[in-house]
Amino acid sequence: MVTAREVYGNDETATVDMPQYGLLLVVLCLALLSSSGQSDICIGKNRRYSQPFSNSSNIPEDQLRSELWCKARLILGYVSTDMSLEAAQANMLASIYMGASGAVAEAFHWAHATAVKCESMAQLQAKNESISDGFRRLYWISFIYECDFISEISVVSPSGIARYEDKIPYPAFTAENHPISPSVPESSEANSIRSQEELVAFQITTNSAIRRFLNTVNSVVYDDKEQFRTRRSNYASWLLRISEDLWSHHSAIYRNLPEFLLSNPSQDVPMTGADTSSPASLQSPTARIQGIPVGNNSWNILRLKGRYYAGQYIIHRPFIEFIVLNIDNFESHPCKDAVLKRSKSCLDGCMGFIKVFDVQTVNSLTCLFPTGMVTFTMTIILMVATIFPIFKDLLPDDVEDVILGGKRNLARFSQSVAEFSWHIEILERLDVARRNRIVRHEE
């Protein structure tokens, strides 16, 4: 229909459904970006890159992608008040496309716009006995993306989408088993598509469960309303009790992951530089990630493993902060040994996360901004830990190599997200100050 109306001027063609047209255009933009190889990010690669809203490139594919995106933005604006599933899907894919292109502000805008629509749609969907699988997938993808952004950017209030997390089911794990067309016989390709659909459902469900858990950690430990606890004498005891429960929950999520989510059929993402032996506390859920012959995409596996270490870090980070803020009196604290043990778990999480993403090539299709921000924070924590003698026995011998790896990872991510150049500069300044302080103490 679109071709008939725009290319051939056929006015007799039925009216174009604008939300579907916008969705089609964004899908084409993503397909062009992925097929161009520009989403494969590595240091030192002579990669051509053009902003999605720029016409400066002389490459025909880039010019086509820019034109498609400009038209898609116009249509997305036109359907901004449309509450159809297709309009919301187009918004969500626009966020993914912007994130893959390194345009963080635009990606956050579209992610938030999608979440606002999903929140309104969920009010109606939650009243139905049956909720479509299409909306389930959209809701949880939107939930993950907005929460990932909100955890790093606090410029707007959350959409409220989380109010319906207990009312919207996860996607169905089984694809509908019917021929693609009545006249087309069943084929191995159709079966492969259904198998991929089932894998996607498991992927969405797993990442949603992990994101919900991280939200719980933030609300229990880091919420401003809970800050009064930090001034109480029993804060360390309360923190030890809460972290034990959270850690048990987090470990259980990973112990119960389906085997095919933790294995890869081919090394399509080089894992050179990734750690081959996890710390003892991580072996149960992560040992199965490596060495399994068939299963998930390698980049998805890295992200699942990265979220594991991120959870370990975020649960135990308050213990690092507690020691630093109470350094003068910590030696005599009754919970000293237990707090140090939990602090080591935080440092191990930082080390593991940085090692996981210290790979030759990363994939920007999943948006590298949240991963880069976590890398920035973890690298700073490791730097700070090397300054305080009390952390000396908790840090492994290769901590300096991992700090260097953190800076290298951020430099790699900055090939997609240009704003990380500022963070890299901050890390360099901190590293110089850190080394100078260590030298002074040694003298």
What does it look like?
This protein has 14 helices and two strands, in the order H-H-E-H-H-H-H-H-H-H-H-H-E-H-H-H. The chain has 443 residues and is mainly α. A two-stranded antiparallel sheet has the order 1-2. Helix 8 (235-255) packs antiparallel against helix 10 (298-325), helix 12 runs parallel beside helix 14 (420-442) and helix 13 (399-413) runs antiparallel to helix 14 (420-442).
Q: What's the β-strand tally?
A: 2
The SSE order reads HHEHHHHHHHHHEHHH
The stretches of 5 or more residues where confidence is low (pLDDT under 50) are: 267-294
Question: Ends: how far apart?
Answer: 77 Å
Largest sheet: 2 strands, antiparallel
The tally of helices reads 14
Q: Kindly provide the radius of gyration, computed on alpha-carbon positions and rounded to a whole number of angstroms.
A: 24 Å
Helix content: 55-70%
- Please indicate the percent range of residues in DSSP E strands (runs of 2 or more): under 5%
Organism: Fusarium oxysporum f. sp. lycopersici (strain 4287 / CBS 123668 / FGSC 9935 / NRRL 34936)
Protein name: Transcription factor domain-containing protein
Keywords: Membrane, Transmembrane, Transmembrane helix
